[in-house]
């Protein structure tokens, strides 16, 4: 996929930076090659290529020819295009995954026969050593390996060549050299009339790397879907007032300065100022607060909020593309672009091994050639070095440890996604935690009731619930949940922004704020209650005050205490007011210095920059997506917003907050296994390279040793899947925030 026909440089006239899609970018070493090429282009001031998002962020000087940049990318075998919509990117990646899946199927079907022949030769009875039979099996092995080497591995060789030519060789380059060496050695052996061939080595290298590439493309697809989920969370329709009439249109068709009607129960679709009306709004999408805010004429409201009570007219100030929620989505995309890559470790090691391996191959040929060995023996020793240099065990060490951890986690109620995040969990120094919906249940409840003389709790709650009716207001819901099942009938109802009045059983009932009662000439009860208090009056006299609050999750206090005992600093970050935040902090035993309240989504991201790393973020809302991505590890609770679940590295699918403890325990074990695997693989490769250079390891033995080292890595990683990761169960307690 090359060329520049799809790239329009004129679209970027007058700009000095942009993010472009890079088609065909399916490995970290490919991203490094494109980045190196772009940085070397005249006029480019900075370039950062992300394998995870298949995109390039470029900044250039005025007058730079962007067509030249696209041509540079095209010469590497990729295509630079305007940044695609995430849904389109998802479709393209899915199409490429299907192509790779077909190649993997071919490699698996034909590779099985190649490996069966190899096993028969290596482990068969003495009769298998008959020269005629050995040559026949060698030719059969070559025939079954041909579709794998010639077809299935083709994109890997192309990628290896591109990255080598760009001066950024990676695993594709090293594996391609190994396949070349194994195939060339086999053909040389057949040409010399021998029966020793190493087609099985080439087949194994191609198959394992195809599996790795499919895993990497699945990671790309998850990034695209994560961004698409953020986009899907944005409201897209509006009731615009034009020529005295209401018209329902796409939000993108409304311009700044126009007016739109926001009816009760509707989502606000554009940012602006209330021109007429007063209502309570659910702002949780951007603030995380479970309790509503009252807004009046002249107050600013934002897209993503939900109108709860009364219709309002909004004067649009920020159309689609300029809304705050749009900027948050763009920030998430940039942060996903800057994240560490999933398999970069293996590619960095491969990049170091390639020049060393090629130097050793040349040195082997030179030294033994000068020593007077026959040319065929010199070639076979050099090929042994090349085969051993392919670090299958190194390339497997990180992915198989991660996959084993994923398997174990699924049984423990955890979904682990990004490999680097899985490894980082066990080394966290700081965990930043959202309050509402994360530490708390996210559902306001009636926690205290103060009564006037002669009143009963059940009677007051029944009156208040009847007056509220079916209002979709969080406070009304809390009152209905606390009231008896049987309610008196309300004959009439009148709603205001801070309360409701209704006729219930012939009595005039008011439910609302203290100000709501005072405007009606009623003095509310003096209770000394803090937080959110709803007052109830009947026939002009206050009869009760209801304190409504969110409640801590049952396992929140014990889980946070256990995490602190392991040395992790717990920091609370919430959009709620400081009083409510401090109530929760006291219940958890957190110091005031680690409580940050009244934070906008952008403030949460900024807070993470100043805290010790590595750090994690535990959240649940759309307003948490930026922080989930900006953290080294983003963790979403099971009831989280779909956009938060999409961008999180770890999802607690069940088991409450204790899942964080299980994830950290599993991560520490996965890190230990990874270090063991990498250590073994590096020792093996270094020792085997020395022996191969000295001629002590023939190509057949090199292939067997490489297979054995890979099996050892797999066996060690499988311990993760067999052994549990559950910490000791923590006691639970229910506390009101």
UniProtKB/TrEMBL annotation:
<keyword id="KW-0597">Phosphoprotein</keyword>
<dbReference type="InterPro" id="IPR036412">
    <property type="entry name" value="HAD-like_sf"/>
</dbReference>
<dbReference type="GO" id="GO:0005524">
    <property type="term" value="F:ATP binding"/>
</dbReference>
<dbReference type="GO" id="GO:0005886">
    <property type="term" value="C:plasma membrane"/>
</dbReference>
<dbReference type="InterPro" id="IPR027256">
    <property type="entry name" value="P-typ_ATPase_IB"/>
</dbReference>
<keyword id="KW-1003">Cell membrane</keyword>
<protein>
    <submittedName>
        <fullName>Cu+-exporting ATPase</fullName>
        <ecNumber>3.6.3.54</ecNumber>
    </submittedName>
</protein>
<keyword id="KW-0460">Magnesium</keyword>
<dbReference type="InterPro" id="IPR008250">
    <property type="entry name" value="ATPase_P-typ_transduc_dom_A_sf"/>
</dbReference>
<dbReference type="Pfam" id="PF00122">
    <property type="entry name" value="E1-E2_ATPase"/>
</dbReference>
<dbReference type="InterPro" id="IPR001757">
    <property type="entry name" value="P_typ_ATPase"/>
</dbReference>
<dbReference type="GO" id="GO:0043682">
    <property type="term" value="F:P-type divalent copper transporter activity"/>
</dbReference>
<dbReference type="InterPro" id="IPR023214">
    <property type="entry name" value="HAD_sf"/>
</dbReference>
<dbReference type="InterPro" id="IPR059000">
    <property type="entry name" value="ATPase_P-type_domA"/>
</dbReference>
<feature type="transmembrane region" description="Helical">
    <location>
        <begin position="100"/>
        <end position="124"/>
    </location>
</feature>
<keyword id="KW-0812">Transmembrane</keyword>
<keyword id="KW-0813">Transport</keyword>
<keyword id="KW-0406">Ion transport</keyword>
<keyword id="KW-1133">Transmembrane helix</keyword>
<keyword id="KW-0479">Metal-binding</keyword>
<keyword id="KW-1278">Translocase</keyword>
<feature type="transmembrane region" description="Helical">
    <location>
        <begin position="349"/>
        <end position="371"/>
    </location>
</feature>
<feature type="transmembrane region" description="Helical">
    <location>
        <begin position="677"/>
        <end position="693"/>
    </location>
</feature>
<dbReference type="InterPro" id="IPR023298">
    <property type="entry name" value="ATPase_P-typ_TM_dom_sf"/>
</dbReference>
<feature type="transmembrane region" description="Helical">
    <location>
        <begin position="197"/>
        <end position="215"/>
    </location>
</feature>
<feature type="transmembrane region" description="Helical">
    <location>
        <begin position="170"/>
        <end position="191"/>
    </location>
</feature>
<dbReference type="InterPro" id="IPR036163">
    <property type="entry name" value="HMA_dom_sf"/>
</dbReference>
<dbReference type="GO" id="GO:0055070">
    <property type="term" value="P:copper ion homeostasis"/>
</dbReference>
<keyword id="KW-0547">Nucleotide-binding</keyword>
<comment type="similarity">
    <text>Belongs to the cation transport ATPase (P-type) (TC 3.A.3) family. Type IB subfamily.</text>
</comment>
<feature type="transmembrane region" description="Helical">
    <location>
        <begin position="136"/>
        <end position="158"/>
    </location>
</feature>
<keyword id="KW-0378">Hydrolase</keyword>
<dbReference type="InterPro" id="IPR018303">
    <property type="entry name" value="ATPase_P-typ_P_site"/>
</dbReference>
<dbReference type="InterPro" id="IPR023299">
    <property type="entry name" value="ATPase_P-typ_cyto_dom_N"/>
</dbReference>
<dbReference type="GO" id="GO:0005507">
    <property type="term" value="F:copper ion binding"/>
</dbReference>
<dbReference type="GO" id="GO:0016887">
    <property type="term" value="F:ATP hydrolysis activity"/>
</dbReference>
<dbReference type="Pfam" id="PF00403">
    <property type="entry name" value="HMA"/>
</dbReference>
<feature type="domain" description="HMA">
    <location>
        <begin position="16"/>
        <end position="81"/>
    </location>
</feature>
<dbReference type="Pfam" id="PF00702">
    <property type="entry name" value="Hydrolase"/>
</dbReference>
<feature type="transmembrane region" description="Helical">
    <location>
        <begin position="383"/>
        <end position="406"/>
    </location>
</feature>
<keyword id="KW-0067">ATP-binding</keyword>
<keyword id="KW-0472">Membrane</keyword>
